[in-house]
């Protein structure tokens, strides 16, 4: 259940007063939202990223909110019906875009690649490899077959995220696991699928 505006204001007041317990609750409450907003921007910008990139940007958002005695967090006014969640999502987008402008896209692309599951049908390596040898229809068929060989937990996650269109935080909530654990499952499943396709194309 989403917190009411009254509950948001009370939690915010406690955070601004320096209540550490409230700050921890605040991070837990909005962590999934921040992860989702960061990943959404990276996907929309067609930028490849790793779990470390997500964690870094996630942490950067909360760091900026709480640094200098919550200077940025104090900027929230709730004007015109803007909820705290909407404001945090907007702020996350701004921080992510600023990060990309300052660091440059190459700073993310240069790392070990974790490609969003939404783009599995278009997966391919930077260098010529098995992904480039497959037509999309054949690639899709192989991915589906490869999914059947995954452990039940990974297969369930892919079904929720890929077939049902749930975001990673939503899939994590459905499976009753942490968002961080969901990203780990996603990364592991993708690597297994890539290995499966590579083995099939070599046979």
From TrEMBL:
GO terms for biological process: DNA-templated transcription initiation. It comes from the Bacteria. Residues 141-193 form the RNA polymerase sigma factor 70 region 4 type domain. SUPFAM superfamilies: Sigma2 domain of RNA polymerase sigma factors, Sigma3 and sigma4 domains of RNA polymerase sigma factors. InterPro entries: RNA_pol_sigma-70-like, RNA_pol_sigma-70_dom, RNA_pol_sigma70_r4_t2, RNA_pol_sigma_r2, RNA_pol_sigma_r3/r4-like, WH-like_DNA-bd_sf. GO terms for molecular function: DNA binding; sigma factor activity. The keyword Transcription regulation applies. Pfam families: Sigma70_r4_2. NCBIfam families: sigma70-ECF (TIGR02937). Belongs to the sigma-70 factor family. ECF subfamily. This is RNA polymerase sigma factor, sigma-70 family. It comes from Desulfonema magnum. The lineage of its organism: Bacteria, Pseudomonadati, Thermodesulfobacteriota, Desulfobacteria, Desulfobacterales.
